[in-house]
Design goal:
The structure holds 3 protein chains of 3 kinds. By secondary structure, chain A is mainly alpha-helical. In chain A, 78% of the residues lie in helices and 0% in strands. Chain A has 12 helices and no strands. Chain B is an alpha/beta fold. Chain B contains 24 helices and 13 strands. The longest helix of chain B has 37 residues. Chain B is elongated and about 100 Å long. Chain C is of the alpha+beta class. Helix content of chain C is 28%, strand content 22%. In chain C, strand 8 and strand 9 form a beta hairpin. Classes of the chains: A mainly alpha, B alpha/beta, C alpha+beta. The interface between A and B is large, with 75 and 75 residues.
């Protein structure tokens, strides 16, 4: 298993290098430069040129890429122009928040999605199935930012059940409870679409598995139906659900951009949108490489989980 | 095509989706013809008029423009964009996927690495960066949304192409000297196309959401042009004060995407061949019972008595009568063979006993099963469950499919024990080892840690038998347990069963299509044809002197010592389809002795000798046989 | 209420099923007394006054730092701050400041002439050891400074390369705020995150993307502030900011979206308004295309219904602009100037005269940006008005930085008109940078529409070196009349900055400078 993990880690390196090239080229292609962004109305060509020189952006593309890559390999992601602080500090600061939001959403959508899919399949064509199918369909059809806005309007402004935005109260203790208070709406809004997708796939995977002969065997043994569904069938269905979870994790991470904007969540997605708009080249590059690395790592974890789950996969 | 539409129409939800999306599309198409206000004419003094105002049914937006008109024009644009993005993404993505999947090797590796890279890039940021690089505008947003979806198509289609690229017809085309490009276009593409169409139809909704998302970020259509996303984006600042300006486009997005998803699901289901047969329904914990008429009493005092059992399969509007009135019984310690061709109803009869017939589509519509004097058809689930495996155990045909692939065989045995007996795991484990030993599995202590895929077919079937024995049942129903095995292994398994039966006083119902096997093991045999028993009697007597022509044909199929294969193809013709049974003798079509009388009406199962019954107007006589 | 609480718990519990143990519940905390929570529009870039350019950052900086001079309350005229007095040499090139005694920075180091010299040398002298703590994008505000000399610890003099009338006004601008040299030496490039000044509030902490917290400075030379703590929360989304204000999460909100103003009617809130030195206009491409003809430019000014824009689109948060100089520069503004009336017929007549009916125009619109108000809605309304008089206008929207990248190098060959807005601190700045012939883009200015009138050039050059305010005012007033007549721009709106405070906040006023001064604010 260790060998397998190592092999997967090594094979991730070219992917990450490729991503670093892509993000570097994209940032180089985008018109406008950080100097214009910083100078705002005062961006005369003269001022822009001087500032670009100060920022070290007057060199050619190739040397700039290799300087960036070299520094990054030594752990130096450079300094953000717009925020005037080390990229890595900012990314790490923000990433914790995103991790809490996306992680909670991911757990939420996995648990809810799988549970809904399993119940739906076990009660196929029954009331629960129809109700779940409808809710799930609603969930995957609603734009998450619209849902988030509506939730703020109803639950925060009208009913005042939850705080409008942010991750921590500005004043007072920081404990799990207040975090959950702030987390509830964004995590839910973010989880809705993925929950729907997972529920649908879990349902069809379960239906597929429930038709298998080994389910009949389990029933013939006198195994209780609950156990047949939640152990025998779900375990087998997980083999096809887990890769979906891997893909959905990517979607949740991406969808966090909208949710972080709507709920003012201090996460990395919002930071990157701002950074792209401000042409904060190093922050975008560093942030994207960091996120991509996490995504790749997560997918390796998914594959490992898959291998642990299914002994037939050769590791 | 008509069949497809019919299938689609049968799915009421999909039909609803089709109707809604159809209406939306029609409205979008005729928008230019409708007497709507100009969507772009501003009238700022009349801004934010609420819905149902005079002259503006849905109200006006932040610049006093008519919301209904903007909604219609916006829907038109959003639909077109979603569709265009889906088509572009599907075309490019599929092309990449087919090339990667078809050529394989290094090409595949490089392409899929690239796809991995794009997928690791958060897609919204990628879209954002693309739009930032290309500049704003509808076309560029469309390109961005299509671009970020290319990898998903590429990955899906590649997977399917890999499967097809190794099929015989592709190899054949290659041998025939076709060039790769021709093969891709002529052989691969037609097979992948349905998948592409399905994927696309389910993606259109997603595309609309994503373009709406980009428009929401201000990267979509250019003002004053309306699309649903930009309407939502522009209305956002007035969300709290004038929510209707947000809700109108938001609800429209919801309706469209929901309808498309419903329709997409319907299309997928209608194109899915498994669903046509109704096979995609999951079987319930116990077979549905829908008995018409009185519940017959037990005909014997036997351990297990089946009386007048009727089991049907209801698939859509067709009715397959798999078992039509079967009477059977098995005594304690007795071995009863049930023999017949595939589809004769023998397995269904056996599975009906413990309510294990897949349901839907299976339904028990009549008869009774008495076990140990109690009627168990339609018994509460908990009663059935406590009997299953404890008093009546099953051994199934293909042990690779019937054992759970992801659990160790030991755990599956332990589970069987603990389902009925609350013993500690350690005890259950030692019992499991004992069970494995009792079916002559060598190294039982280490084998218990094996997964089914790590064992040979014979070993797996021994595990299957051990599992059936786990709770010392009274009856074992073995449903063709040796069919998938080769001859030597089959002999071993039969000898294991035979020994166990002697040692434990088990009753066995042994289902097979092979008279040779019946002869080795069974005391009595029942021959089934088209859901009915056509002959029943002591094995030796039946073998010696078959009375039903079908039985005699079956016996003829058993090779003599050292003979060739056992095949039922020796009987000309095919068994009747059980959804269209003839009025008279079901075997008449294949019987060379058939008379007009045979086809005139139902033939009864009549007692011919002591302990023998036959369902034939013209039973065979001994002399014919001995000849 | 019990019902609501219960339900809320139920919802929470359901959502939290994945989390660990549920600790004791916390009610929605009301913001405490004497702690003011300000809803900002964005995360600050840095808290180093020399390094930042955004009004949003200035709002915090003005409370942590002081400059040598500051704007008199409610005006844009300089008055003493860290400098108690100053003299200007006869030729207008040497400014000598007497510094306030006994002032220390928050870090304890002394404020003196050396500190002042350090500040300006850091920004202007590339050889200065701390010049690398930059970049200092607005250093050109002081590009006329040749040297800063310490006369004695309480006296410092600035020598300019030539007379430069806006110098004092620029010193009052945030770029002229004085930072602690000791803190710069200690923190180097990270000074922007560890600020130290002489202002009414000392820096507390900066929690990235959550809040900047400042505490009262009890030793403030101008009297300790009433508030104990001010928390600046960045809430980029205007809608969310409004929701927070309505839900009681913030006490003071700046830049209220016009459409949200109606939510704050009533006793629970106070809406503040203050006209400032802001002008929102359309740059017209006078070099080529239809707008090369002055009649077409005037037609555009007549065709656009500015009243509707300021009253309806902007909900009265702006006033119709008459010319290039906003009325907030009271002394330099020409009150006789009447805005172009909304007169579509006149516009059509002018277009017909110029033969420009049905002309196709490209219109650059931005999605947002400093001082741009509601640019998409405004652009859309303008487009509709111009369509109504027979001009065929195509909008192209750009996100702010791309927009600037397209507009600042000049509109030639790309567009006929573009939105723009400026907020300045001196009547000289905008016309000098954006209307002179010498300010065409290829010469490093912002005259992106290539307007050129030698008379205007002469007036602006003269006003810049004129040290007598009355004479300067006359020159500017004359300039405004000519520019309005030439119509290089469509003059659209002067923004009235707004803010909302809850009923717990007292003593708050907005400044024409658009800065946020909190030392006299109370909260209970």
């Amino acid at each position: 298993m260790t060998g397998y993990i190592l092999k997967r880690l090594v094979s991730a390196i070219p992917v990450l290098l490729g991503i670093s090239v892509i993000v570097f080229l994209i940032m180089a292609m985008i018109p406008g430069d950080p100097a214009t962004a910083i100078l705002g109305s005062y961006a005369t060509p003269e001022n822009v040129e001087k500032l670009n020189r100060d920022l070290g952006l007057d060199q050619g593309l190739v040397p700039r890429y290799f300087i960036w890559l070299g520094n990054m390999l030594q752990g130096d992601f450079g300094r953000s122009f717009a925020l005037n602080r080390p990229v890595l500090d900012e990314v790490l600061d923000r990433f914790g928040a995103t991790l809490i939001l996306a992680g909670t959403s991911f757990v939420l959508c996995s648990v809810l999605g799988i549970a809904a899919g399993v119940i739906s399949a076990a009660r196929q064509y029954g009331f629960a199935d129809k109700a779940i199918t409808f809710v799930v369909l609603l969930g995957i059809s609603i734009p998450s930012f619209f849902l988030g806005m509506m939730m703020i309007l109803i639950f925060a402004v009208q009913l005042r059940w939850f705080p409008v935005s942010g991750m921590w109260p500005i004043y007072g203790d920081r404990n799990l409870w207040v975090l959950m208070d702030h987390l509830a709406m964004p995590a839910f809004a973010l989880a809705v679409v993925a929950t729907g997708v997972i529920a649908r796939l879990a349902r069809s995977a379960m239906l597929e598995v429930l038709r298998q002969d080994f389910i009949r065997t389990a029933r013939a043994k006198g195994v209780h139906e609950r156990r047949v569904i939640w152990r025998h069938a779900l375990r087998a269905a997980m083999v096809s659900i887990i890769p979906i979870l891997g893909i959905q994790a990517g979607f949740v991470l991406s969808g966090a951009v909208y949710i972080e904007m709507v709920f003012q969540w201090p996460g990395v997605g919002r930071m990157l949108v701002d950074a792209i708009l401000k042409r904060d080249i190093l922050l975008v590059q560093g942030g994207v490489v960091f996120i991509a690395a996490c995504y790749v790592l997560f997918n390796i974890m998914v594959d490992v989980a898959q291998a642990l789950l299914d002994p037939r996969i050769k590791t | 095509m008509m069949a497809f539409l019919k299938l689609l129409a049968r799915n009421r939800l999909a039909l609803a989706g089709l109707i809604v999306i159809g209406m939306v599309v029609v409205l979008a198409l005729i928008t230019p013809l409708l007497p709507l206000a100009d969507p772009d004419v501003t009238d700022t003094p009349n801004r934010f008029k609420p819905p149902f105002s005079e002259g503006a049914i849905l109200g006006t937006d932040h610049l006093g423009r008519d919301l209904l008109s903007r909604l219609m024009w916006g829907t038109r644009l959003s639909l077109a964009m979603g569709l265009a993005a889906a088509i572009i993404a599907a075309t490019i993505g599929s092309a990449i996927g087919i090339i990667a999947g078809y050529y394989g090797g290094r090409t595949d590796n490089i392409i899929m690495r690239g796809v991995d890279m794009l997928m690791a890039f958060p897609y919204i940021l990628l879209a954002l960066a693309i739009v930032a690089a290309l500049g704003p505008g509808l076309m560029n947003a469309l390109i961005a949304v299509a671009a970020v979806n290319v990898p998903f198509f590429a990955r899906n289609i590649r997977g399917i192409t890999v499967g097809i690229a190794h099929k015989e017809f592709v190899d054949a085309a290659r041998l025939a000297g076709m060039r790769d490009r021709e093969i891709i276009v002529a052989e691969v593409l037609p097979n992948v196309l349905p998948v592409i169409v399905i994927a696309m139809s389910t993606t259109v909704g997603w595309m609309i959401l994503e373009t709406a998302g980009l428009s929401f970020l201000g990267l979509g259509s250019q003002p004053p042009q309306a699309d649903l996303g930009s309407m939502l984006g522009e209305a956002r600042s007035a969300l709290i004060t004038n929510p209707h300006t947000s809700i109108v486009p938001g609800a429209m997005i919801l309706i469209i995407v929901m309808a498309i998803n419903l329709l997409g699901d319907g299309v997928r289901d209608a194109l899915d061949p498994r669903l046509k047969s109704g096979a995609l329904s999951r079987p319930m914990p116990a077979t549905t019972v829908d008995r018409q008429g009185a519940v017959p009493a037990a005909k014997t005092e036997s351990l297990l008595d089946i009386a007048g059992l009727r089991t049907e399969f209801r698939v859509r509007d067709r009715l397959y009568k798999a078992v039509s009135g079967v009477d059977l019984h098995v005594e304690k310690g007795e071995c009863l063979g049930i023999i017949g061709e595939s589809g004769s109803g023998k397995s269904v009869t056996a599975l009906s006993v413990m309510g294990l017939v897949a349901s839907p589509p299976g339904v028990i519509t009549g008869g009774a099963v008495h076990f140990d004097g109690k009627e168990i058809i339609g018994a509460p689930y908990e009663v059935l469950r406590s009997l299953r495996g404890r008093r009546v155990a099953y051994i199934f045909q293909d042990p690779l499919a019937t054992l759970h692939p992801l659990y160790k065989v030991g755990d599956q045995l332990i589970e069987a024990i603990q389902s009925h007996d609350s013993v500690s795991s350690a005890d259950a484990r030692s019992r499991a080892i004992g069970l494995l030993k009792s079916v002559r599995i060598p190294n039982a202590e280490s084998r218990i840690e094996s997964y089914p895929y790590e064992m040979s077919g014979g070993m797996r079937q021994r595990v299957g038998i051990a599992m059936a024995l786990a709770n010392n049942p009274d009856v074992i129903i073995a449903d063709e347990p040796t069919t998938a095995l080769d001859v030597t292994v089959q002999a071993q398994i039969l000898s294991v069963l035979s020994d166990l039966r002697r040692e434990r006083g088990l009753a066995i119902i042994f289902i097979t299509h092979d008279f040779g096997v019946v002869g080795q093991l069974c005391d009595r045999v029942a021959v089934m044809y088209a859901g009915q028993i056509v002959e029943e009697g002591p094995t030796a007597a039946v073998l010696r002197n078959p009375q039903h022509p079908y039985t005699s044909r079956l016996i003829d199929c058993v090779p003599t010592l050292g003979g060739g294969q056992r095949k039922l193809s020796a009987i000309p013709g095919l068994p009747p389809v059980v959804d269209n049974l003839p009025v008279g003798c079901a075997f008449a079509e294949r019987c060379d002795k058939a008379h007009a009388d045979c086809r005139a009406g139902p033939v009864e199962l009549v007692k011919t000798e002591e302990a023998r019954k036959t369902r034939c107007l013209f039973p065979e006589v001994v002399s014919e046989r001995s000849a | 209420m019990t019902f609501l609480t219960l339900t809320r718990r139920a919802v929470l519990a359901a959502t939290a099923a994945t989390a660990l143990a549920l600790s004791a519940g916390g009610a929605m905390a009301q913001t405490p007394e004497n702690v003011l929570i300000v809803g900002q529009i964005a995360e600050p870039q840095a808290l180093d006054p020399a390094a930042v350019t955004a009004v949003n950052d200035f709002r915090i900086l003005m409370n942590i730092y002081d400059g040598l001079v500051r704007y008199k309350d409610g005006t844009l005229e300089p008055e003493p701050a860290l400098a108690t007095d100053w003299t200007i040499s006869e030729d207008g090139t040497v400014y000598t400041f007497t510094l306030r005694e006994g002032v220390t920075f928050h870090d304890g180091s002394a404020f003196d002439a050396e500190a002042v010299k350090f500040n300006f040398d850091r920004m202007l002298d590339e050889a200065h050891p701390y010049h690398d703590t930059g970049p200092f994008p607005l250093a050109f505000f002081f590009s006329s400074v040749e040297s800063v000399d310490v006369i004695d610890p309480q006296t410092v003099s600035f020598t300019l390369s030539g007379p430069y009338a806006p110098f004092l006004s620029n010193l009052a601008y945030p770029t002229g705020l004085i930072v602690s040299p000791a803190a710069v030496m200690e923190h180097g490039a990270d000074f922007g995150r560890n600020p130290s000044g002489t202002g009414a509030f000392t820096f507390g902490e900066w929690r990235s993307n959550e809040a900047v917290v400042v505490q009262a400075n009890p030793d403030y030379w101008d009297g300790a502030p009433e508030l104990e703590t001010v928390v600046f929360r960045p809430i980029t989304d205007a809608n969310t900011r409004t929701a927070e204000m309505l839900a009681g999460g913030i006490d003071l909100m700046v830049e209220v979206p016009p459409v949200a103003l109606s939510e704050f009617q009533g006793d629970a809130y106070t809406v503040h308004e203050q006209a400032g030195p802001h002008v929102w206009f359309l740059i017209l491409n006078a070099k080529e295309g239809p707008f090369a003809d002055v009649r077409v430019r005037q037609a555009a000014n007549y065709a656009i219904n500015k009243e509707a824009i300021v009253n309806d689109v902007l909900e009265g948060t702006a006033e119709v602009a008459a010319g290039p100089t906003p009325p907030a520069f009271a002394w330099a503004y020409n009150p006789d100037l009447e805005p172009y009336p909304y007169d579509p017929d006149r516009a059509r007549a002018l277009l017909a005269e110029a033969g420009a009916e049905g002309a196709e125009l490209t219109f650059y619109v931005t999605e947002g940006g400093s001082g741009m108000l509601d640019p998409v809605a405004m652009g859309t309304a303008i487009q509709a008005d111009l369509e109504a008089v027979g001009l065929d206008v195509t909008i192209e929207t750009y996100e702010w930085n791309t927009f600037l990248g397209n507009v600042n190098p000049g509109l030639e060959g790309k567009a006929d008109m573009a939105e723009m807005a400026w907020m300045t601190n001196d009547p000289d700045t905008l016309p000098f940078l954006a209307l002179r012939t010498e300010a065409w883009p290829d010469k490093g200015g912002f005259n992106s529409g290539y307007y050129s009138n030698p008379e205007v050039d002469a007036l602006l050059d003269a006003a810049r070196v004129e040290t007598d305010q009355a004479e300067r005012a006359r020159l500017y007033k004359e300039m405004q009349v000519i520019v309005q007549q030439d119509a290089p721009w469509v003059f659209v709106a002067n923004w009235k900055q707004n803010a909302v405070t809850s009923d717990r906040v007292g003593g708050f006023t907005l400044q024409p400078s658009f800065f946020l001064l909190l030392d006299d604010v109370t909260k209970n």
